[in-house]
Design goal:
It is a single chain. Strands 3, 4, 5, 6, 7, 8, 9, 10 and 11 form a 9-stranded mixed sheet that branches. Strands 1-2 form a two-stranded antiparallel ribbon. Helix content is 26%, strand content 29%. Helix 1 crosses helix 4. The longest helix has 23 residues. Strand 6 and strand 7 form a beta hairpin. The chain has one domain: Chitinase A, domain 3, CATH 3.10.50.40.
Length: 238
């Protein structure tokens, strides 16, 4: 069953890639980036937007996003006001991030390495559809696992496949990219601001992000499309 679902994910991704490339044969990279920029701008302004899951359940109503600067974000103790639907824009990458919960535990310290469980929804903004997720009953015992490290303030991460063979993110994108365990750089950004801990009364860290192609998966980078993510980060037990 697992292999069947994996093949379906890979086939769907291959079809999406072929169609995307075919449509872009006559477009320049600059034109593709401009289409991406317009799609992100429209997504931010949409009110409301309901994301639908595989069983047509309501996942999230994003509402019109309130974009704040990095300066305001830092003045708010590196936090976003969810009641105002705030998202901070990182101008150097084009990533928009909302911290829903910072989580219990503590930020990744210098010289520290942790194993982190990630559960996520991935929504293709250009395709206006849910693309992949491991937030289903099937993937409940087989999430994506990352090994993260802080080396002198530089945080790095890679998917761990030795424990469970990889979750939905790795099996969809890593396998088709030569079994690469590289984590999208967009997924690493929150690790500088959230706490990594186990499930407590404070809950585990939860973020929502718009990730442009340049900080996304290899498929997003190659085909120039942005994704909206909701991702939780939980320290894995030894």
């Amino acid at each position: 069953m697992k292999h069947l679902l994996t093949m379906k994910l890979l086939c769907a991704l291959c079809i999406l890639s072929v169609l995307t490339v075919a449509c872009k044969d006559d477009e320049t990279y600059a034109e593709q980036k401009e289409k991406e920029r317009k799609a992100v701008s429209a997504f931010i302004e949409r009110d409301p937007l309901v994301l639908m899951g595989p069983d047509d359940e309501i996942l999230l109503n994003t509402r019109k996003m309130n974009i704040i600067s990095q300066e305001q974000f830092e003045a708010q103790d590196s936090m976003t006001d969810v009641s105002q639907n705030q998202y901070v824009l990182f101008g150097n990458t084009g990533i928009y991030m909302q911290i829903v919960r910072k989580g219990g535990g503590h930020k990744l310290r210098h010289g520290e390495t942790k194993r982190v469980i990630c559960r996520y929804w991935e929504y293709n903004i250009m395709g206006d559809s849910l693309q992949t997720t491991n937030n289903t009953f099937y993937w409940a015992t087989n999430p994506d696992i990352m090994d993260v490290s802080n080396n002198s303030g530089t945080i790095s991460a890679s998917f761990n496949t030795s424990i469970n063979g990889g979750g939905a993110m790795f099996l969809t994108y890593g396998v088709s990219n030569g079994n690469s365990t590289a984590v999208p750089t967009g997924w690493v950004v929150p690790l500088s601001y959230i706490n990594l801990g186990r499930q407590t009364s404070e809950g585990i860290a939860l973020v929502r992000m718009i990730v442009p192609h340049s900080s996304g998966t290899a498929d997003a980078t190659n085909n120039v499309y942005p994704c909206f993510y909701e991702i939780s980060y939980e320290e894995m037990r030894d």
